[in-house]
Specification:
The protein is mainly alpha-helical. Helices cover 50% and strands 0% of the residues.
Length: 102
C-alpha cells in the first residue's frame, strides 16, 4: 500500500501533505497578514477566492502563479505583491488548499 501511495504522490494524483499543512504553510509564508479564511482583510478571503475560481480547470495553476508573481486588478486596485520565497510546490499546495475552502 505504501508503494501505491508513494507512486500516486509522485504522479501528482495525491498530495503528500494533509490539508492542515497548507494552513500552517500560509502562516509560515506570511499569507495571513493580508488574507483570512472567511473575511476580507487587505485581500479577499480565501473562501471568496475559492468561489471565484470554482470549476475552472486551470484554477490551481492560475492561483499558484498569482501567489508567486503577485497581481492586481482581479480584486480591485490593491496589488498583491510577489512572493518569491514561495517555491512551486508550496504555491501549488497553497492554491489547492485555498480552493478546498468552500
Amino acid at each position: 500500500m505504501k508503494m501505491f501511495v508513494a507512486a500516486a504522490v509522485a504522479a501528482g494524483l495525491l498530495s503528500a501533505a494533509p490539508a492542515f499543512a497548507s494552513a500552517d504553510l500560509a502562516s509560515k509564508k506570511n499569507c495571513l497578514a493580508c488574507h483570512a479564511t472567511d473575511k476580507k482583510m487587505v485581500g479577499p478571503s480565501y473562501k471568496e477566492v475559492a468561489a471565484k475560481y470554482a470549476g475552472q480547470a486551470d484554477a490551481v495553476a492560475t492561483l499558484a502563479a498569482k501567489i508567486q508573481k503577485g497581481g492586481v486588478g482581479v480584486w480591485g486596485k490593491v496589488p498583491m505583491p510577489p512572493n518569491p520565497q514561495v517555491n512551486d510546490a508550496e504555491a501549488k499546495a497553497l492554491a489547492e488548499w485555498v480552493l478546498s475552502l468552500k
